[in-house]
Amino acid sequence: METLLYMQTDVFPALLRGFGVSIRLIVPSALVGLAIGIIVGVLRVYGNSFVKIAADLYAGLFRGIPLVIQLFIWYFGLPYFKIFLSPFAASVLGFSLCSGAYHSEYVRGALLSIKRGQMLAAESLGFSKIGMIVSIILPQAVRRALPGAGNEIIYLIKYSSLAYMITCIELTGEGKILASNSFRFTEIFLTVGACYLLMTSVAAIILAKVENHLKIPGFEQQRT
Amino acid sequence: MTSPILRIENLSKKYGQREVLKGVSLEVEKGDLKILIGPSGAGKSTFLHCINFLVKPDEGHVWLDNEEIHPARKRELYAYRQKVGMIFQDFNLFDHLTAFENVRIGLVKVKGIGKDAAGARAAQELERVGLKEHMQKYPSQLSGGQKQRVSIARALAMDPEVMLLDEPTSALDPELIGEVHAVIRDLGKSGMTMIMATHQIGFASSLASEIIFMEDGRILEQGTPSKIFNDPDNSRTREFCSKITDLYGER
Amino acid sequence: MPESLVAVIDAFPYLLQGSLVTLAVVAGALSFGLLVGAPLAIGQVYGGALIRRSVGLYVWFFRGIPLLVFLFLFYFGLCTALGINLSAFTVAIIVLGLISSAYQSQIIRGAIQSLPEGQLKAARALGMSDIKAIVNIIIPQALRLSIPGFSNEYSILLKDSAVTYALGVAEIMARAHFVATRTYHHFPLYFAAGLIFMILTWLGVKVLRLLEDRVRIPGYSHN
Question: Can you list the domains of chain C with their CATH numbers?
């Protein structure tokens, strides 16, 4: 009875609040990350050599350094240069930039996988460069990049928990506070885990639906 | 009267609604070379796979040396398969092992023979099929004909009483067929009991003790090569034989 | 020389010691993950419906929840609830290993499924039991084909191992933070830590590439 009351008055409101913060972290990070990834991915394929090097360097650094360290750099490191970010802002910045680096990899792979003949055929039909990109390249590239990019968003959902480590109190953080106060670590972290499972599963289902919707016979997608 | 070494009764197999084998029976005497002919999809390959239960027949019985095989008894099944060698259309050599190791692995892992003794036997079998100098090569470094000879050596090393050959030359370039046929011919001369599916009519007629014509999951006719090729009773047999001789330009 | 550079140079040996801890955690987790993941993969390919579904559930569970939540759940929750006293280091290896086993099982499963069906058939035709065929024929081939996947898994585990700092494992990240809070040179120290991770990634991938070449068999391709 006491447990039930505790769950009702303390656990649910706190976890709900944390869930809300997590969503507010994930959604903008996913969108900004995707936008960065598309731009950088395109630059890595079609940019001039200077742009290519810069874009490759960005992707290499942000995929090579652990995300926790990146978050620490944005939150604890930037004040070194007299720039101060809130935990929330530092988290969104960190997630977007890291996610963008991974997305750029999938976009790049997708663009490179399109056969030269596709472009030759489009040019021979008299497509303009823009027309070719919009009508021929993008529809193919989107399908190729989708599984990887979708996976990256599922990773982002899980990695959003790292915001707690720079004191942005989202789902994991609320769970940690609740658990530390009540010493019910197992129950609370299982509940928190269930919330993440819900998010990742819903994302996976949506991804599968979209992939299925865009499926073309014989057009193979690269699996990651 | 001798009793058959291998007796097969009423083998049937269905894939979903499709009946691939419709109660096929066959008796094989020691030293026989039975050759299965017939159009693709006739059930020859399924028949061979069912004989050693690589494909589980829905019905039917198999006896080896007058002992019925119960495939549900695993130990019995494994022992039986050692006595029945199988040669596949696409060789199925173990891709991570050299020719030598391919032949040795069954001896070591199935028969439990020590590595040295097994190695000596493997070398001997590879020499028998003329591949002594290619022992240390991996499957990808061998030609199709060499691969098939390794797979024959692999089966022979197990001292089989009967060999099943499922179109052993159909995946080979024409110029490589001869070397495999030579090995099979030698086997026949040494008295090996064999059942072979093939489209090579010329080879079949020169070697077979009996030709078995299969179509649509059934044996339509069986008899000596001269009977089947020159004077078949069944009109379908005649049609098939004339078609296939046209196609391959043999005989 | 700028003060920040001095701080990094001073801390460098200390950070490098941390990389030994990091590598120990990663090596432990990778091995543990393989030990659990390989049987899972075999179960998922060759097992009955119940086994297949159980493995699927296991994979879904360990891939669907963040590492940090698992670390807290095991270290603060389950260890206490079950009355077992494990060090943060051990828990880090177990948790990373369990998560990795879910991913590794899928790498190995993919490799097994990419093998031609005839391999198993030929083994059976020689009289091998299914277990013998899987151990002697399927697994040696599948593991070779899995090496690029393991290499990827290594670099993911390496980066994820930085999260174990949350339990107080004295790996690179924890040490960088420890020095940073004392010297106030946060940015250069974190950056140095990040570079050490990149170097470790590069080294590990190199080592796995060497391993791949060593066990390479003619005719087996990288993909």
Answer: 3-214 (1.10.3720.10)
